[in-house]
Specification:
The structure holds 3 protein chains of 3 kinds.
Chain A (H helix, E strand, L loop, with lengths): L5 H22 L3 H26 L2 H29 L11 H25 L8 H17 L3 H23 L4 H29 L5 H12 L12
Chain B lengths: L1 H5 L1 H19 L6 H27 L4 E5 L8 E5 L1 H24 L8 H20 L3 H19 L6 H28 L8 H6 L4 H19 L8 H7 L2 H26 L9 H19 L4 H28 L3 H36 L10 H4 L1 H14 L6 H13 L10 H31 L16 H19 L1 H7 L1 H6 L26 H22 L4 E4 L17 H11 L4 E6 L11 E6 H21 L7 H19 L1
Antiparallel strand pairs in B: 1-2, 4-5
Helix pairs in contact in B: 2-3, 2-5, 3-4, 3-5, 4-5, 4-11, 4-14, 4-19, 5-6, 5-11, 6-7, 6-11, 7-9, 7-10, 9-11, 10-11, 10-13, 11-13, 11-14, 12-13, 12-18, 13-14, 13-18, 14-16, 14-17, 14-19, 16-18, 16-19, 17-18, 17-19
Chain C lengths: L2 H32 L9 H11 L2 E4 L4 H20 L15 H21 L3 H32 L4 H10 L6 H17 L18 H5 L4 H26 L11 H28 L8 H22 L2
Helix pairs in contact in C: 1-3, 1-9, 1-10, 2-9, 3-4, 3-9, 4-5, 5-6, 5-7, 5-11, 7-9, 7-11
Classes of the chains: A mainly alpha, B mainly alpha, C mainly alpha.
Chain lengths: 236, 667, 316
């Protein structure tokens, strides 16, 4: 470790902290804190991008750092906080799995991701190739976050964190995606969150709750009603 | 006598024969407690001490082989005494000596097997275990192995009038035979087409990789069944509590170690052509078993059952160490393989002494109170100080606390795990250090279990009025307990000497000697790393601090002390029934590891006149593995049951058809 | 054993014994300030120890000798722990006798004795405290062991002075794995020392307490020794943290008496910062329900294991 240049050490540290934050998200019950953690993850990603840009001197990484700052650190958390305030959802109910089991599953996923990444990073040529395993783990952990939550809000946060992981993976494997792709993805995420935000309001109008169990009921009742009106689901 | 000294093997065989004779002598007057109990058992203990001494001598003597002209024609019995067998013989001698002395004072008049018969079964059990260790061909080994299983079966079912004990005995016999079949098949594979069943022939046999792996896995299944490796552990928590306490001690302390010996013999000595993944199987299974056993031990309410589960845990740790040693050996890291092997042997010795001590302690408690259930004990440290304080040594040692002996083997194993990431295989090198995490968790749980065991049994207030009549153990029982406690202390304080003594075993098993350059009081097993542990200094510093503090207290302050009723936050109405019971103490574990168990609970409703709370914890493996298996077997037997017509004509027809078919095949 | 080593060893034991109550006093003062209360004097723990030593000991009738021996054993264990943690210097002769794993075992020994003594009187509170203490302990101990394992992997040894030295004297290195283990260690420290998310040192509310419940039956000199040992435990944990995460400034083998004496103010500074940080953590977090405690410690364990994995992945 002592022989490794300082910027690379910092990059590795950023990677590890990203993983730490993913685990913190996995354990977090409060949605407000979840969003804060997401913002923090964005900030770490920003640091990592800037460090990498400085190290490799690739100009487009600065642009993508700017994009990260605007979108992931500032705009999306702000939007989500606003949504939380408007929708009055501060807490998630108990997760589907109890937290220790979730943590163990998370641990297993990390072992799996690290094992999977070992041969990939052996092929890579970038200085940051060791972090691929971490990026992969972040993606899978976000998946688990989404799986185990009930509230739609937490799932959106999981989705965004997954995107962060992918972004970081691309960065450590090939020093970032081409600019066009990156813009495209950013736009996608933005639109997705906006659309989902609109959806939240609609869901709550219908069910008085953001709990996804209500959506599960739709299917059965729609079947019972012979595929009829889907608006009759929320009356109970 | 002179030739005996020159040939440790002959001496060992003589001593085993002496055990056999002592057993037979018990039949002279089967009902006489004085003959069997007060005379033969102490003599058996003397044989044990002699055996330990001879084994110690043999450890440093060259390997000795001999063919006895006993047994079936053309099938002489081959005997061999090498360092590996010597270590286990030493263990057998030392531990059985303590247990026999205790047993001399333990067996009383009462229902069940008469003392003379018991004496025969007991000494046959001892002799067969010795024979297992000395056997040098598959026949002798299997005969001894089966005698061991059968004699212990009869010992387990001493109180055969009780249905649950017969059931426990049946399960034990069933799994013992399942295991024996696997061992037999494993030997069958290992002879490799030579049809020579001596171990020498097996060492020389050339097996292809799949056959070698099959032999390894069969041996693991067979010896694992004896050792209580999950999922074949179910007999252990049934059989151990059913047996009389000295027998439980012998089974847990020594018999389980013969399984370890068998596995070591097969995987390090007999079986060539190792595959790299072999070690991973016992490692994973062992560590899982360790955690599983510890969790279950924490929720038990019967003190012997608790100890039985704890034996499962410790055997899991031993098999984990075996797996680690194999992994290291296959990676060519011989020094580390030796380190893991030392941890294994040390833990075997530790567990043998500690667990026997604890089982004998429970025996003494059982005798003087008639209670096995933790929920009805308590406060016995006032009534039975000898038993309590000696058991405390065992409990602390089993918790893996320094400076006692349980810590040393765990320390050695953790040191070995610390280098596991250097194994040159991707992914595996990442998984191996996780084993250390599991080991640490199991060890920490063991401390929980022992606090529960000791605290609920010996501390606090007596939960039943009858406990006030409890008496301390008799003189013979005390001698047995003290002997084992001293063995624990020797293992705790002299690790360097013991590890040096184990060097011939390492050499035999293809390892390298672990450094011996450090001073005598310092354990520094990893060459090149400044890692050391000195239990003697450790103990000395703590004792000094305690003494200095106490002295300072006496010198500088008055030493006034007053006895009063317990303060208890000023709440005067608490009674002894409000102490934590065993269920209460295990509650956090039930809560945390709820997914491990099948729990049936009866909770009182608020309106119950006589509220009743009951919780029973079952092993999930019964439901998920054994019951489906039995139902499959049941269905299979049902489907052939139509053959059983109950008519003689039909049976004669079967014989006739068989005869005709055989004759036709001969054509 | 050189005279210098002997001096370092003795100095470390004496200063730990002397400074531990002061550290508790400092943490309490910070807590009071943060809680907007007027703070007690930092010397208060000394005064209460002195008061307790002068009182007459009252022992319950049902107490066994184990109950009376335990305060001395716990105190002795903590003193030995203070002797082997390199808080000022790394030239400690006693560290030959016990490495980092033995240190964890030593802390466990103290815990087991304390729990057994709590059960000994046979009151409901005592057994409750003992059970909870063991529950916290059996999760915290492996977590701590894993933390130490990661540090041992980095420095390729489990000898504490060697760990501290190798972490302190390397050219500047950031270890991502240590980030994980630092989080885990902080959680273990909070849990093991009966600090706020797990236990509240300032309360005697029986339904929530863990540590205090075990000491209920102790009085006078026995209680004083137990309190002192608790203070030493916190001090020791802080010093383990320094040795693992901020080992700079510890006088190494190369350094002479000057380095040793230079390490004293540095240790004091570290303790002040750590105490303040501890007070901040305690002030901003809420006490968890007892059933959340295993979850909390489960995180600590998982984080420590993650640190191990990250170390193996990144090679750092």
């Amino acid at each position: 470790m002592a022989g490794v240049p300082i910027d690379l050490q910092l990059l590795n540290l950023c990677a590890a902290l990203l993983l730490l934050l993913s685990f913190a998200m996995l354990a977090q019950r409060r949605i407000v804190n979840l969003v804060n953690l997401l913002a923090l993850q964005g900030a770490l990603l920003l640091c990592a991008t800037l460090l990498l840009a400085w190290r490799t001197g690739q100009a487009h990484l600065y642009v993508s750092a700017l994009l990260t700052l605007a979108l992931k650190v500032l705009f999306l958390p702000w939007l989500l906080h606003r949504l939380i305030r408007r929708l009055q959802v501060y807490w998630d109910s108990e997760p589907l799995l109890n937290i220790p089991v979730t943590m163990l599953a998370g641990l297993a996923v990390v072992v799996f991701a690290f094992g999977l990444a070992q041969p990939i990073s052996a092929l890579g040529s970038t200085a940051t190739r060791n972090s691929i395993g971490i990026a992969l783990a972040v993606v899978l952990l976000s998946f688990i976050t989404m799986i185990t939550r009930r509230k739609a809000m937490s799932q959106v946060v999981g989705f965004l964190s997954m995107e962060n992981g992918l972004f970081f993976g691309a960065m450590s494997a090939t020093y970032g995606m081409p600019m066009v792709v990156e813009f495209g993805v950013a736009l996608d995420v933005l639109v997705a969150v906006l659309v989902l935000g609109v959806f939240f309001f609609q869901i709550r109008e219908q069910f008085d709750s953001l709990d996804l169990q209500h959506l599960e009921k739709l299917r059965e009742e729609a079947a019972a009603a012979g595929g009829g009106g889907n608006t009759s689901g929320g009356d109970n | 006598m002179i030739p005996l000294i020159h040939s440790p093997l002959s001496a060992c065989l003589t001593l085993l024969a002496a055990w056999g004779l002592l057993g037979l002598a018990g039949l002279l007057r089967p009902r006489s407690l004085r003959l069997a109990g007060r005379t033969l058992f102490p003599l058996g203990a003397l044989c044990g001490v002699a055996l330990a001494l001879v084994a110690l001598l043999a450890l440093f003597s060259p390997v000795e082989q001999r063919t006895l002209l006993l047994g079936l024609p053309d099938l002489p019995m081959h005997m061999r005494l090498d360092p590996l067998a010597s270590v286990f013989l030493f263990l057998l001698g030392i531990v059985s000596a303590g247990i026999s002395v205790f047993a001399a004072g333990y067996f009383r008049r009462g229902p069940g097997t008469p003392p003379g018969l018991l004496c025969l079964q007991y000494h046959l059990f001892l002799a067969s275990m010795g024979l297992v260790l000395l056997a040098d061909d598959a026949y002798t080994f299997m005969v001894a192995w089966e005698v061991m299983a059968l004699s212990s079966y009869f010992l387990v079912t001493t109180q055969h009038a009780l249905a649950e004990i017969r059931r426990a005995g049946f399960i034990y016999l069933l799994i013992a035979h399942l295991g024996a079949t696997c061992v037999l098949l494993s030997f069958g594979v290992m002879q490799g087409g030579s049809w020579q069943f001596t171990f020498d022939a097996m060492r020389a046999a050339h097996l292809t990789a799949p056959w070698a792996s099959a032999a390894f896995l069969l041996a693991l299944a067979g010896f694992g069944a004896k050792a209580g490796l999950a999922p074949l552990h179910v007999w252990l928590p049934e059989a151990h509590p059913a047996a009389p306490s000295p027998v439980s001690a012998l089974m847990s302390g020594v018999m389980l170690k013969t399984a370890v010996y068998g596995m070591l013999r097969v995987s390090f000595d007999l079986l060539g052509h190792p595959q790299w993944w072999w070690g991973l199987v016992p490692l994973a299974l062992g560590l899982f078993t360790a955690l599983f056993g510890a969790v279950f031990a924490a929720v038990q309410t019967d003190m012997k059952r608790l100890l039985a589960w704890s034996s499962i845990e410790n055997l899991g740790i031993i098999f984990g160490a075996l797996g680690l040693a194999l992994v290291f050996r296959e990676s060519g890291m011989l020094a580390l393989a030796s380190l893991a092997l030392i941890a294994l042997l040390y833990h075997s010795l530790n567990h043998a002494c500690i667990k026997s001590l604890l089982f004998l302690g429970t025996g003494a408690v059982l005798h003087s109170t008639g209670e096995r259930s933790l929920g009805r004990l308590g406060g016995l440290i006032h009534r039975m100080p000898w038993v309590a304080w000696l058991t405390l040594i065992g409990a602390l040692a089993l918790s893996g606390l320094p400076p006692l002996n349980g810590f040393i083997s765990e320390w050695l194993l953790l040191q070995a795990f610390l280098f596991a990431h250097e194994v040159p295989r991707p992914f595996v090198n990442m998984l191996l250090p996780l084993g250390a995490a599991l080991l640490a968790l199991a060890a920490a749980l063991a401390a929980y279990v022992m606090v529960k065991f000791f605290g609920v049994t010996f501390l606090g207030q007596p939960r039943e009025a009858a406990l006030a009549r409890a008496r301390d153990a008799g003189i013979l029982e005390r001698i047995g307990l003290v002997w084992l406690a001293l063995a624990c202390l020797a293992l705790a304080l002299l690790p360097t000497q013991i590890i040096t003594a184990l060097r011939p075993v390492l050499m035999e098993l293809g390892g390298v000697a672990v450094s011996g350059t450090s001073p005598w009081w310092l354990l520094a097993p990893v060459p090149g790393r400044q890692v050391s542990y000195a239990p003697l200094v450790f103990l000395l510093v703590i004792v000094m601090t305690v003494l200095v503090t106490a002295l300072a207290m006496r010198l500088f302050y008055h030493h006034r002390t007053r006895l009063a009723r317990a303060w208890d936050c000023g709440f005067g109405a608490l009674t002894a029934r409000m102490q934590d019971t065993a269920e209460g103490f295990g509650q956090p574990i039930r809560h945390i590891f709820s997914s491990f168990f099948m729990m049936t609970r009866e909770l009182p409703s608020p309106f119950d006149r006589s509220p009743h709370y009951r919780v029973v914890v079952h092993d999930r493996i019964w439901q998920t593995l054994y019951l489906p298996l039995t139902s499959v077997v049941q269905r299979a037997t049902d489907s052939v049951a139509w053959l059983q017509r109950g008519r003689i004509a039909a049976y004669l027809l079967y014989s006739f058809v068989t005869l005709v078919v055989l004759l036709a095949l001969m054509l | 054993m050189t005279p210098m080593a002997l001096i370092t060893q003795l100095l470390q034991i004496v200063s730990a014994l002397a400074a531990a109550p002061l550290f508790i006093g400092w943490v309490n003062q910070c807590r009071a300030w943060l809680g907007n209360r007027s703070a007690p004097s930092v010397w208060l723990p000394y005064r209460s120890l002195r008061k307790l030593f002068h009182k007459e000991a009252v022992i319950a009738e049902g107490a066994s000798p184990l109950f009376r021996v335990t305060p001395y054993v716990v105190f002795g264990a903590m003193t030995l722990a203070a002797a082997i943690i390199p808080s000022m210097g790394t030239r400690l002769p006693l560290t030959l006798a016990a490495d980092a794993i033995a240190l964890v075992g030593l802390l466990a020994t103290a815990r087991v004795f304390q729990s057994l003594a709590a059960i000994d009187i046979g009151t409901a509170f005592g057994t409750l405290g003992a059970r909870r203490e063991m529950m916290v302990g059996f999760l915290a101990e492996p977590a701590l062991l894993m933390v130490i394992f990661v540090a041992s992997l980095i420095s390729a040894t489990t000898a504490l002075p060697a760990i501290a030295e190798s972490l302190a004297t390397r050219s500047f290195g950031l270890y991502p794995s240590l980030a994980f283990t630092a989080v885990a260690f902080t959680m273990v420290l909070l849990a093991e020392n009966a600090r706020i998310p797990i236990d509240n040192p300032a309360t005697h509310l029986e339904l929530t307490m863990i540590h205090e419940a075990q000491l209920l039956e102790y009085s006078a000199r026995h209680l004083a020794l137990m309190e002192w040992a608790a203070a030493l435990k916190l001090f020791n944990y802080a010093c383990i943290g320094f040795a693992l995460f901020v080992p700079w400034g510890v006088s190494t083998r190369a350094g002479g008496p000057a380095a040793l004496f230079a390490s004293i103010p540095l240790l004091a500074l570290k303790l002040m910062v750590a105490g303040a940080a501890l007070a901040v953590i305690e002030t901003v977090s809420a006490k968890l329900r007892v059933f959340r405690a295993p979850e909390f410690l489960g995180f600590a364990f998982v984080f420590a294991v993650l640190g191990l994995l990250v170390h193996l992945l990144l090679g750092a």
